[in-house]
Amino acid sequence: MHHFRYDEAGVLCAEGVPLPVIARAVGTPVYVYAAATLRRHYRVFRDALHGLDSLIAYSLKANPNLSVLRLLADLGAGADVVSGGELDRAQRVGIPPERIVFSGVGKTESEIGEAVAADILQFNVESVAELAVINRVAGQAGRRAPIAFRVNPDVTAGGHAKIATGHRSTKFGVPIDRARELYARARAMPGITVTGIDVHIGSQILDAAPFRSAFGAVVELAAQLRADGHDIRVIDVGGGIGIPYGAQPGLAPETYADVVRATLGTGTRLVFEPGRLIVGNAGMLLASVLYMKEDSERRFVILDAAMNDLLRPTLYGARHQPVVVQRPDGQADHRTCDLVGPVCESGDIFAEDVLLPPLAAGDLVAFGTAGAYGAVMASEYNSRPLVPEVMVSGERFGVIRRRPTREESLALEEPFSVEADAVEGSP
Ligand SMILES: Cc1ncc(COP(=O)(O)O)c(C=O)c1O
């Protein structure tokens, strides 16, 4: 469910704002988010978890824009962070430290120091080497860091190999069959307090079965660890709930919550780390047609948006449903075309063999389900400016990240003069 709809004139709107209004004011390409959808998704998920002692720690990696975060923080969300930068963002919008968990396989010593100083809820630890650094850093600060091991239950799940994290061959987590030994080691460390267990098996998971088997394994482990004398207060079940992209249905939050209830029960504090579920369908990428190229074998619609603005189609073969912003009057003759960007890569393709009404230069096209892993993955490849972001609420909209100027894009570069005719290897 989202809040992008056609009005009576056949113009696509985000809540009460026609997308052409945003295109004229901000230019294209631009991401547009609907605040009403963000709020709705958060509430639907929270309501599905009724009766559970739960914390929704929104996974910032999906979309860390401060305005998105502020809205979710106001609704009571916590944060799942994977870097010092994300921790800083969570703190800036006032998410209390006891609602923040720190995930990721490569936390640096200084990031660990920041999180120890912030007194966060839990470090989700991914290796013995990382545990040793957390122990040292916390010890030096005269503290004990609360930790959970991220266990790898050897479950295959996720919308694409690159976002499947729960099987043994990935870099994520510690093997679940080694967990008891590792927890025993952690308990002996003076800078560590064992508080929980963490699992995250992948992203865009549409089937409840892998969650059932992963959570079942975690429950068994929790019982063993408690029998070993560990005080397991928190079970963090990660994110990964699959959402609808186009016609493909998502995994209903209620179905997911039923699996949680059936496996993990109601006795333990549960942390959830949804990202895509909250922001995915709350965003669209709005682009303009630059050229119709009909003089080769295929009919190309060349847009002003490219893979540097939305990487997922190129990276994962992901499909973001394209729609025209102005519906044609009457019965238009739909034609098959490929939607591509201007970047100098053959892979700069948003969608192939799409049936769309006739398009011309200047027309607007929007891609759905672009709120998660969209703007945050954007780059300046081909020296294209970072794509801006707009938030709509009712009839109002605001630019929540503007397009940088050329000067701003160049600002970090320093001149370093080298002689053009210098001979390699000469002193
Ligand atoms: C540890 C962890 N938690 C949560 C998430 C969020 O996943 P999703 O956006 O699929 O809910 C991810 C995404 O990769 C992750 O790595």
Short description:
With 427 residues, the protein is α/β, with parallel strands linked by helices. Helices cover 28% and strands 24% of the residues.
Structural descriptors:
Lyase, Ornithine Decarboxylase, Chain A, domain 1, 9-stranded mixed sheet, about 425 residues, about 30% helix, 8-stranded parallel beta barrel, alpha/beta, 2 domains
Task: Explain what this protein looks like in three dimensions.
This protein is of the alpha/beta class and 427 residues long. The protein folds into 2 domains: 4-32 and 280-410, Beta Barrel (Lyase, Ornithine Decarboxylase, Chain A, domain 1), CATH 2.40.37.10; 35-276, Alanine racemase (TIM Barrel, Alpha-Beta Barrel), CATH 3.20.20. The chain is 28% helix and 24% strand. The protein is built from 12 helices and 21 strands. The strands form 3 sheets. Strands 4, 14, 15, 16, 17, 18, 19, 20 and 21 form a 9-stranded mixed sheet that branches. β2 (12-14) and β3 form a beta hairpin. It starts with a strand and ends in a 17-residue tail after the last helix. The relative contact order is 0.16. The protein binds pyridoxal-5'-phosphate (PLP). Pyridoxal-5'-phosphate is lined by residues 59, 61-62, 80, 103, 200, 203-204, 238-241, 273-277, 372.
Indicate the topology:
Blueprint: E1 4-6, E2 12-14, E3 17-18, H1 19-26, E4 30-34, H2 35-48, E5 54-59, H3 66-74, E6 78-81, H4 84-92, E7 100-102, H5 109-118, E8 122-125, H6 128-140, E9 145-152, E10 174-175, H7 179-187, E11 192-198, H8 208-227, E12 234-236, H9 253-264, E13 269-272, H10 276-279, E14 283-293, E15 300-303, H11 312-316, E16 322-324, E17 335-340, E18 349-356, E19 364-367, E20 389-393, E21 396-401, H12 406-410
Parallel strand pairs: 4-20, 5-6, 5-13, 6-7, 7-8, 8-9, 9-10, 9-11, 11-12, 12-13, 15-17
Antiparallel strand pairs: 1-2, 2-3, 4-14, 14-15, 14-19, 16-19, 17-18, 20-21
Bound molecules: pyridoxal-5'-phosphate.
The site of pyridoxal-5'-phosphate has 18 residues, from helix 10.
